[in-house]
Design goal:
By secondary structure, the protein is of the alpha/beta class. It has twelve helices and 24 strands. The protein has a six-stranded mixed sheet, with helices on one face. Helix 2 links the parallel strand 1 and strand 2. The longest helix has 26 residues. The chain is globular and about 80 Å long.
């Protein structure tokens, strides 16, 4: 008798679980699944559909050959001001990467073949306005840091008592972030000496976001903030964080599963409607709610020419909103004895700086070249950021032994200032946390968006009118 009652209760609990489809297995999708489980372990049956053959989205690790080193080929670190990731380090937990990075002892601005190198970091000797410029930058960084702290506080740091935002416009109002997202970095730093702008700020913005100082000042100040605060990354690569989030969530996960269509259909019993997904040309469903944990512009079937056939949304009307233009990015890791100075316009007796950045008018093929690690065998691990593949590596390095290129068809959207954003819901039961990416792009932004989507789903489930 007791067993019968138990089985009946178990069947009722299973039947009452809301079925959630999550499209995308990166930080956003994984965070959504994790926080849904944290909010109510027995309320949701979550299924993640990831088009790639791995979890992680735009984070990916690479094991270095014949070394204990593991490097990141995508998002590579987060700052201590990233509140939720710092919390997750304790909750999951996340083991910190301890492989010693190589300090940048020398730096320079490379402007391409035939152009002289320039000093990157300015100081009192090279810039008479150094002190006043540094104070302006420090003040702006402090202001955005305080606004960010207030943003977390006003939204609520506690998962169960916090209030989800219902639009990105609402999100940026918390803490007054809208003052930064509606303004350019150039305007915010218009009193900074032009020498520091050209030789420090512009190269740094290109390094982090591959954009000019016309990007919104929240993203621009985040560049400076990341340079001034301690960085963290996960042992084994930052995609390990995503895998742990998914593991802890208990979600069903399907890799190499491309969603082609999301269709809203009336239920057979005539009561309400459900979502069905066409995945690899196979029908999946029904689902009560859907989460798009990927950029709307890049979600769908990727073709061989790096174009995408978008997901088809059927059975309802999408809201109208502006589409974002995304940058693409090459990350190239190289093992070699040294960078060849003559290939970079230096004499054979010179040494290429530990980090070389570029300015907007550079003719160099790359945006950044850095000697990141000293390897156990005496070689160095170098990393390029570039908009194009670099094919003459044997000319650029001496003692070249290994290299690998990673191409990211989409990395950062255009982060120009705006006060109009994409919606966080595409339908009353379709959640779009990636809309937050118009403010700034970082692993923490994916966590913020996914956490908010989970809170929205939980709140909507408590509201009879939205069930």
């Amino acid at each position: 008798m007791r067993l019968t009652v138990f089985l009946a209760l178990a069947a009722t609990t299973l039947a009452s679980k809301q079925k959630i489809a999550v499209i995308g297995g990166g930080f956003t999708g994984a965070s959504t699944a994790y926080y849904l489980n944290q909010l109510c372990e027995d309320c949701y049956e979550v299924t993640i559909f990831e088009a790639q053959d791995r979890l992680g989205g735009r984070v990916l690790h690479q094991k270095w050959p014949n070394s204990s080193l593991i490097v990141n080929a995508g998002g590579d670190e987060w700052s201590k001001v990233n509140t939720y990731l710092m919390q997750l380090m304790q909750e999951l937990p996340i083991e910190e990467d301890t492989y010693p990075s190589r300090p940048y002892k020398t730096s320079g601005l490379y402007q391409g073949a035939g152009n002289p190198w320039m000093q990157m970091a300015v100081d009192r000797k090279t810039d008479p306005n150094y002190d006043s410029s540094a104070l302006i930058i420090e003040k702006q960084v402090q202001e955005v840091q305080e606004s960010l702290k207030l943003n977390y506080k006003e939204r609520g740091l506690n998962l169960t008592t916090g209030k989800p935002y219902e639009s990105i416009e609402e999100f940026v109002r918390f803490g007054g972030l809208e003052l930064f997202t509606a303004d350019t970095t150039a305007t915010r730093l218009d009193k900074v000496d032009v020498l520091m702008i050209n030789r420090t700020i512009i190269p740094a913005c290109r390094d982090i976001y591959d954009q000019s100082i016309g990007l919104n000042s929240f993203a621009g100040m985040a560049v400076a903030l990341s340079a001034l605060t301690p960085a963290h990354s996960s042992k084994g690569g930052n995609d390990q964080v995503v895998m742990k989030l998914v593991e802890k969530s208990g979600a069903n996960t399907f890799l190499s599963s491309t969603v082609e269509t999301v269709s809203l259909q009336a239920n057979d019993n005539g009561a309400g409607s459900s979502f069905y997904l066409s995945v690899n040309r196979s029908n999946q469903g029904p689902f009560d709610r859907v989460v798009l944990g990927a950029p709307f512009e890049n979600a769908g079937v990727w073709n061989n020419n790096n174009t995408v056939t978008p997901i088809k949304w059927q059975g309802f009307s999408l809201p109208s909103f502006p589409l974002r233009k995304y940058q693409h990015w090459y990350v190239i890791w190289v093992e070699a004895k040294a960078a060849n100075p003559e290939a970079f316009g230096l004499s054979s007796k010179d040494v290429v700086p530990d980090i070389a950045l570029t300015m907007a008018n550079s003719t160099a093929k790359f945006v950044k070249l850095a000697a990141e690690y000293d390897l156990e065998n005496g070689n160095k691990a170098f990393r390029f950021f570039s908009n194009v593949p670099i094919t003459n590596l044997d000319e650029l390095f001496t003692g070249l032994t290994w290299n690998k290129t990673f191409h990211w068809p989409y990395t950062f959207p255009d982060l120009a200032p705006t006060s109009t954003f994409q919606p966080v819901k595409l339908h009353e039961r379709i959640y779009y946390p990636n809309a937050l990416e118009s403010v700034a792009v970082a692993m923490e932004m994916g966590v913020i968006g996914g956490r908010n989507a989970a809170m929205q789903i939980y709140a909507d489930g408590q509201n009879p009118s939205k069930k």
